[in-house]
Design a protein that fits this description.
Elements (H helix, E strand, L loop, with lengths): L1 H15 L4 H30 L6 H9 L4 E2 L2 E2 H18 L4 H10 L14 H11 L4 H8 L10 H15 L8 H16 L4 E7 L4 E6 L6 H18 L7 E6 L9
Parallel strand pairs: 4-5
Antiparallel strand pairs: 1-2, 3-4
Helix pairs in contact: 1-2, 2-3, 2-4, 4-5, 4-8, 5-7, 5-8, 6-7, 7-8
Length: 260
């Protein structure tokens, strides 16, 4: 949420051009108010999409905060809605209570909205919050038990745990692990640095582009074009990666003189 406030405030400041302390404070305050509005609307929209109702306003607000939370690249509000829909489908097939399964699925990660403020497993924290705001005990158990810290007390609780696992494990739901990502970025930079005349290589755009800086005395303009092709070919031959990777070779010559 802080990152989104910063992004919105910076965008307004850069577009306006008037950047001074008072202006910065004003734009940050405006951005915070806008984020609050988005949170409320997002919570209401999630309830509507999942087809559930009848929860405390503050619970809806906490749900809306999940719009700004991700887990392995998966947006947690979208994941909550998806889990609710899957739980509802499975409950209908198993002749369980569809309403309980849907609401349990939608609220199962409620604790993630406050885990940066409250210590403890998010399932337990979420269950305690839901209980505080009058959510029925059977749904509180669905929330608290979906990672096994608490024993499930109903078929709906088991369904919610299953729906959560399916939503997180389906193809494309989550991105690669941090270790795999760091390894791939390091390998990209190593490939760029392996060529003669290269001074530095930087992987940017989450590994979707590499910037290769060359020494102008060692690499001329024509060689820079060929170098970009050679690096791209070596990446294709040696690495596995999603989508495509842009290779940008930068050759910069500076002439500096001083007037005295």
């Amino acid at each position: 949420m802080r990152r989104e406030v910063a992004r919105m405030a910076l965008s307004k400041l850069v577009a306006d051009g008037r950047i001074h302390p008072a202006r910065i404070e004003k734009e940050v305050e405006k951005a915070q108010q806008e984020i609050d509005r988005i949170i409320v609307e997002s919570g209401e929209q999630a309830m509507l999409e999942a087809g559930v109702s009848g929860v405390h306003r503050e619970v809806q607000r906490l749900l809306g905060r999940l719009k700004f939370r991700t887990s392995y690249g998966q947006n947690q509000l979208q994941h909550a809605v998806e889990t609710a829909k899957l739980a509802g489908l499975m409950a209908a097939e198993l002749h369980a209570n569809v309403k309980i399964a849907k609401l349990g699925g939608l609220l199962h990660d409620l604790g993630k909205a406050v885990t940066h403020e409250i210590d403890g497993p998010h399932a337990i924290v979420g269950g305690e919050i839901a209980k505080r705001y009058g959510v029925p005990e059977v749904i509180v158990n669905c929330i608290a038990s979906h990672h096994g810290e608490v024993e499930p007390e109903s078929i709906e609780a088991v369904i919610v745990a299953a729906a959560d696992a399916i939503s997180g494990a389906r193809p494309g739901a989550r991105r690669e692990s941090l270790e795999t990502y760091i390894k791939r970025v390091t390998e990209l930079e190593d490939i760029g640095n392996s060529f003669k005349g290269v001074s530095q290589t930087f992987a940017i755009q989450a590994g979707r582009e590499i910037r290769v800086l060359v020494r102008p005395e060692d690499v001329d303009d024509l060689s820079a074009i060929q170098l970009s092709r050679d690096i791209a070919k070596k990446i294709e031959d040696n690495l596995q990666y999603p989508g495509q990777i842009r290779v940008t070779v930068v050759r910069e010559t500076r002439a500096v003189e001083y007037a005295k």
